[in-house]
Amino acid sequence: MIEGLVIYDEKDVERNKTYINWLIEEGKNKDIIIKLVLDKDIDKLTSKYEFAINRSRNFNVTYKLEESGTRVFNEYKFCILGNDKLIAYDYIETLGIKYPKVYRSLEEFQKDKKIIEKPKNGHGGANIRILEEFNSLNFSQNVYQEYIEDYVGDIRFYIINNNIEHAVIRIPKKDSLVSNFTQGGNVEVYNYSIKEKEIINKILKNINIDFGGIDFLLLKNGEILFNEFEDAVGSRMLSYLGINDTMEKFLNHIVNEIKGME
Protein backbone atom coordinates (compact mmCIF):
# COMPACT_ATOMS: atom_id res chain seq x y z
CA MET A 1 0.00 0.00 0.00
CA ILE A 2 1.32 3.43 -0.99
CA GLU A 3 0.41 6.43 1.16
CA GLY A 4 0.41 10.01 0.00
CA LEU A 5 -1.13 13.47 0.27
CA VAL A 6 -3.13 15.76 -1.94
CA ILE A 7 -2.61 19.38 -0.91
CA TYR A 8 -4.99 22.28 -1.54
CA ASP A 9 -5.40 25.87 -0.49
CA GLU A 10 -8.41 26.04 1.83
CA LYS A 11 -10.43 28.34 -0.44
CA ASP A 12 -10.14 25.87 -3.35
CA VAL A 13 -11.32 22.74 -1.54
CA GLU A 14 -15.07 23.23 -1.90
CA ARG A 15 -14.84 24.13 -5.60
CA ASN A 16 -12.70 21.06 -6.28
CA LYS A 17 -14.50 18.59 -4.01
CA THR A 18 -15.62 16.36 -6.89
CA TYR A 19 -12.08 16.11 -8.26
CA ILE A 20 -10.63 15.43 -4.79
CA ASN A 21 -13.11 12.63 -4.12
CA TRP A 22 -12.46 11.18 -7.57
CA LEU A 23 -8.72 11.19 -6.91
CA ILE A 24 -9.07 9.53 -3.51
CA GLU A 25 -11.50 6.84 -4.75
CA GLU A 26 -9.48 6.01 -7.87
CA GLY A 27 -6.38 5.82 -5.71
CA LYS A 28 -7.98 3.11 -3.58
CA ASN A 29 -8.45 1.00 -6.72
CA LYS A 30 -4.69 1.06 -7.18
CA ASP A 31 -3.82 0.44 -3.51
CA ILE A 32 -2.98 4.09 -2.95
CA ILE A 33 -4.17 5.85 0.20
CA ILE A 34 -4.45 9.60 -0.43
CA LYS A 35 -5.13 12.03 2.41
CA LEU A 36 -6.38 15.59 1.85
CA VAL A 37 -4.30 18.24 3.64
CA LEU A 38 -4.41 22.04 3.50
CA ASP A 39 -1.22 23.82 2.52
CA LYS A 40 -1.29 25.86 5.74
CA ASP A 41 -1.13 22.63 7.76
CA ILE A 42 1.91 21.07 6.10
CA ASP A 43 4.22 21.96 8.98
CA LYS A 44 1.89 20.18 11.40
CA LEU A 45 2.31 16.75 9.76
CA THR A 46 3.79 14.18 12.11
CA SER A 47 4.07 11.29 9.64
CA LYS A 48 6.16 11.09 6.48
CA TYR A 49 4.35 10.17 3.29
CA GLU A 50 5.77 8.55 0.18
CA PHE A 51 4.45 11.22 -2.14
CA ALA A 52 2.43 14.41 -2.29
CA ILE A 53 0.27 15.90 -5.04
CA ASN A 54 0.54 19.65 -4.53
CA ARG A 55 -2.49 21.40 -6.04
CA SER A 56 -2.25 24.44 -3.79
CA ARG A 57 -0.06 26.37 -6.28
CA ASN A 58 2.22 27.13 -3.33
CA PHE A 59 5.75 26.33 -4.47
CA ASN A 60 7.13 26.87 -0.94
CA VAL A 61 5.17 23.77 0.11
CA THR A 62 6.75 21.78 -2.70
CA TYR A 63 10.21 23.01 -1.69
CA LYS A 64 9.73 22.00 1.95
CA LEU A 65 8.45 18.55 1.06
CA GLU A 66 11.23 17.88 -1.44
CA GLU A 67 13.81 18.97 1.14
CA SER A 68 12.37 16.34 3.50
CA GLY A 69 12.72 13.66 0.80
CA THR A 70 9.09 13.46 -0.33
CA ARG A 71 8.41 12.96 -4.04
CA VAL A 72 6.11 15.80 -5.06
CA PHE A 73 3.90 15.84 -8.14
CA ASN A 74 4.66 18.36 -9.73
CA GLU A 75 8.27 19.08 -8.90
CA TYR A 76 9.51 22.42 -7.58
CA LYS A 77 10.85 23.78 -10.88
CA PHE A 78 7.58 23.32 -12.71
CA CYS A 79 5.54 24.54 -9.73
CA ILE A 80 7.39 27.87 -9.92
CA LEU A 81 6.97 28.12 -13.70
CA GLY A 82 3.25 27.46 -13.33
CA ASN A 83 2.72 30.12 -10.68
CA ASP A 84 4.89 33.05 -11.73
CA LYS A 85 4.22 34.16 -15.30
CA LEU A 86 7.29 36.39 -15.56
CA ILE A 87 9.60 33.52 -14.59
CA ALA A 88 7.79 31.34 -17.15
CA TYR A 89 8.28 33.92 -19.93
CA ASP A 90 11.96 34.32 -19.08
CA TYR A 91 12.36 30.56 -19.23
CA ILE A 92 10.53 30.22 -22.55
CA GLU A 93 12.70 32.97 -24.02
CA THR A 94 15.82 30.88 -23.33
CA LEU A 95 14.31 28.21 -25.60
CA GLY A 96 13.68 30.64 -28.45
CA ILE A 97 9.90 30.10 -28.33
CA LYS A 98 7.66 33.03 -29.19
CA TYR A 99 5.32 34.64 -26.65
CA PRO A 100 3.39 37.94 -26.50
CA LYS A 101 5.54 40.97 -25.78
CA VAL A 102 5.85 41.66 -22.06
CA TYR A 103 6.30 45.25 -20.86
CA ARG A 104 8.74 45.51 -17.98
CA SER A 105 8.48 49.26 -17.33
CA LEU A 106 6.23 52.22 -18.02
CA GLU A 107 8.74 53.59 -20.51
CA GLU A 108 8.14 50.64 -22.84
CA PHE A 109 4.48 51.42 -23.49
CA GLN A 110 3.22 53.02 -26.64
CA LYS A 111 0.56 55.40 -25.35
CA ASP A 112 -1.81 54.74 -28.24
CA LYS A 113 -1.97 50.97 -27.60
CA LYS A 114 -4.21 48.77 -25.51
CA ILE A 115 -2.45 46.34 -23.18
CA ILE A 116 -3.42 43.26 -21.18
CA GLU A 117 -3.04 43.16 -17.40
CA LYS A 118 -3.00 39.79 -15.62
CA PRO A 119 -1.83 38.70 -12.14
CA LYS A 120 1.64 37.14 -12.07
CA ASN A 121 0.24 34.13 -10.21
CA GLY A 122 -3.26 34.19 -11.70
CA HIS A 123 -5.23 31.24 -13.05
CA GLY A 124 -8.68 30.47 -14.38
CA GLY A 125 -8.92 33.74 -16.28
CA ALA A 126 -9.46 35.73 -13.07
CA ASN A 127 -8.64 39.45 -12.98
CA ILE A 128 -7.50 39.76 -16.59
CA ARG A 129 -8.21 43.24 -17.96
CA ILE A 130 -7.70 45.32 -21.07
CA LEU A 131 -6.12 48.67 -20.21
CA GLU A 132 -6.08 51.76 -22.37
CA GLU A 133 -4.75 54.08 -19.66
CA PHE A 134 -1.54 53.33 -17.83
CA ASN A 135 -1.67 55.53 -14.74
CA SER A 136 -1.85 52.97 -11.93
CA LEU A 137 0.25 49.94 -12.87
CA ASN A 138 1.66 47.46 -10.36
CA PHE A 139 4.66 45.66 -11.86
CA SER A 140 5.34 43.72 -8.66
CA GLN A 141 1.99 41.89 -8.79
CA ASN A 142 0.92 41.95 -12.43
CA VAL A 143 2.15 41.10 -15.91
CA TYR A 144 1.54 43.62 -18.71
CA GLN A 145 1.41 42.31 -22.27
CA GLU A 146 0.65 43.53 -25.74
CA TYR A 147 -2.96 43.27 -26.86
CA ILE A 148 -3.21 40.83 -29.78
CA GLU A 149 -5.89 41.72 -32.30
CA ASP A 150 -5.86 38.47 -34.31
CA TYR A 151 -6.30 36.13 -31.35
CA VAL A 152 -8.51 33.07 -32.02
CA GLY A 153 -8.35 31.10 -28.77
CA ASP A 154 -6.19 29.22 -26.27
CA ILE A 155 -4.74 25.77 -26.90
CA ARG A 156 -4.09 23.65 -23.83
CA PHE A 157 -1.75 20.68 -24.11
CA TYR A 158 -2.31 18.18 -21.31
CA ILE A 159 0.96 16.59 -20.22
CA ILE A 160 1.37 13.43 -18.15
CA ASN A 161 4.84 12.04 -17.45
CA ASN A 162 6.30 14.49 -19.98
CA ASN A 163 4.11 13.28 -22.84
CA ILE A 164 1.26 15.02 -24.63
CA GLU A 165 -1.92 13.12 -23.76
CA HIS A 166 -4.58 15.48 -25.10
CA ALA A 167 -5.02 18.96 -26.54
CA VAL A 168 -8.07 21.19 -26.55
CA ILE A 169 -8.80 24.66 -27.85
CA ARG A 170 -10.80 27.16 -25.82
CA ILE A 171 -12.54 29.86 -27.82
CA PRO A 172 -13.87 32.92 -25.99
CA LYS A 173 -17.43 34.13 -26.18
CA LYS A 174 -18.06 37.00 -28.57
CA ASP A 175 -16.63 40.28 -27.24
CA SER A 176 -14.87 38.43 -24.40
CA LEU A 177 -11.16 38.47 -23.73
CA VAL A 178 -11.12 35.32 -21.58
CA SER A 179 -11.38 31.87 -23.16
CA ASN A 180 -11.41 29.80 -19.95
CA PHE A 181 -14.06 27.07 -19.89
CA THR A 182 -15.19 28.06 -16.40
CA GLN A 183 -15.65 31.63 -17.67
CA GLY A 184 -17.97 30.54 -20.48
CA GLY A 185 -15.52 29.82 -23.29
CA ASN A 186 -16.29 27.12 -25.85
CA VAL A 187 -14.03 24.06 -25.92
CA GLU A 188 -13.17 21.57 -28.66
CA VAL A 189 -10.61 18.83 -29.21
CA TYR A 190 -7.57 20.35 -30.93
CA ASN A 191 -5.70 18.40 -33.61
CA TYR A 192 -2.20 19.75 -33.24
CA SER A 193 0.35 19.76 -36.05
CA ILE A 194 3.76 18.11 -36.19
CA LYS A 195 5.36 21.54 -35.88
CA GLU A 196 3.33 22.31 -32.76
CA LYS A 197 4.28 18.95 -31.26
CA GLU A 198 7.94 19.78 -31.88
CA ILE A 199 7.53 23.04 -29.96
CA ILE A 200 5.98 21.21 -27.00
CA ASN A 201 8.68 18.55 -27.03
CA LYS A 202 11.32 21.27 -27.04
CA ILE A 203 9.84 22.55 -23.79
CA LEU A 204 9.59 19.05 -22.33
CA LYS A 205 13.29 18.36 -22.94
CA ASN A 206 14.11 20.99 -20.34
CA ILE A 207 11.55 20.40 -17.59
CA ASN A 208 9.70 17.51 -15.99
CA ILE A 209 5.89 17.69 -15.87
CA ASP A 210 4.12 14.90 -13.97
CA PHE A 211 0.65 16.22 -14.73
CA GLY A 212 0.18 19.76 -15.99
CA GLY A 213 -0.81 22.00 -18.83
CA ILE A 214 1.03 24.09 -21.40
CA ASP A 215 -1.10 26.86 -22.88
CA PHE A 216 -0.59 28.65 -26.19
CA LEU A 217 -2.47 31.42 -27.97
CA LEU A 218 -3.64 30.57 -31.49
CA LEU A 219 -3.56 33.44 -33.99
CA LYS A 220 -5.59 33.80 -37.18
CA ASN A 221 -2.50 33.15 -39.33
CA GLY A 222 -2.02 29.76 -37.62
CA GLU A 223 0.93 30.85 -35.50
CA ILE A 224 1.00 29.89 -31.83
CA LEU A 225 2.45 31.95 -28.97
CA PHE A 226 3.29 30.56 -25.55
CA ASN A 227 0.84 31.82 -22.91
CA GLU A 228 1.44 30.03 -19.61
CA PHE A 229 2.07 26.82 -17.71
CA GLU A 230 -0.66 25.31 -15.54
CA ASP A 231 0.71 23.48 -12.53
CA ALA A 232 -2.60 22.37 -10.96
CA VAL A 233 -4.29 21.49 -14.23
CA GLY A 234 -8.00 20.70 -14.12
CA SER A 235 -10.05 18.09 -15.95
CA ARG A 236 -13.40 19.87 -16.45
CA MET A 237 -12.83 20.54 -20.15
CA LEU A 238 -11.80 16.97 -20.86
CA SER A 239 -14.76 15.58 -18.93
CA TYR A 240 -17.06 17.87 -20.90
CA LEU A 241 -15.64 16.34 -24.08
CA GLY A 242 -16.12 12.80 -22.75
CA ILE A 243 -12.41 12.23 -22.07
CA ASN A 244 -11.87 10.73 -18.62
CA ASP A 245 -8.57 8.83 -18.78
CA THR A 246 -6.18 11.37 -17.26
CA MET A 247 -6.78 10.33 -13.65
CA GLU A 248 -5.89 6.70 -14.33
CA LYS A 249 -2.81 7.68 -16.33
CA PHE A 250 -1.66 10.09 -13.64
CA LEU A 251 -2.12 7.56 -10.84
CA ASN A 252 -0.30 4.89 -12.87
CA HIS A 253 2.57 7.36 -13.26
CA ILE A 254 2.64 7.95 -9.50
CA VAL A 255 2.72 4.20 -8.77
CA ASN A 256 5.55 3.64 -11.26
CA GLU A 257 7.55 6.54 -9.86
CA ILE A 258 7.21 5.42 -6.25
CA LYS A 259 8.01 1.79 -7.05
CA GLY A 260 11.01 2.96 -9.05
CA MET A 261 12.34 4.71 -5.94
CA GLU A 262 12.17 1.57 -3.79
Largest sheet: 5 strands, antiparallel
Helical content, roughly?
A: 25-40%
The share of residues in extended strands comes to 25-35%
Q: Quote the CATH topology of the largest domain.
A: D-amino Acid Aminotransferase, Chain A, domain 1
Counted by DSSP, the helix tally is 8
N→C terminal distance? 13 Å
Rough outline? globular
The first-level CATH class of the largest domain is given as Alpha Beta
- Based on DSSP secondary structure assignment, what is the total number of beta strands? 13
CATH-defined superfamily of the largest domain: ATP-grasp fold, B domain
Task: Determine the mean pLDDT.
Answer: 89
Poorly predicted runs of 5 or more residues: none
General description of the model:
There is one protein chain. The protein has two domains: 2-73, Rossmann fold, CATH 3.40.50; 81-240, D-amino Acid Aminotransferase, Chain A, domain 1, CATH 3.30.470.20. The mean pLDDT is 89. The chain is 28% helix and 29% strand. With 262 residues, the chain is α+β, with helices and mostly antiparallel strands. The strands form three sheets. The chain has a five-stranded antiparallel beta sheet with strand order 11-10-9-12-13. Strands 2-1-3-4 form a four-stranded parallel beta sheet, sandwiched between helices. A four-stranded antiparallel beta sheet has the order 5-8-6-7, with helices on one face. The protein is built from eight helices and 13 strands. Helix 3 (59-67) links the parallel strand 3 (51-54) and strand 4. It is globular, with a radius of gyration of 19 Å.
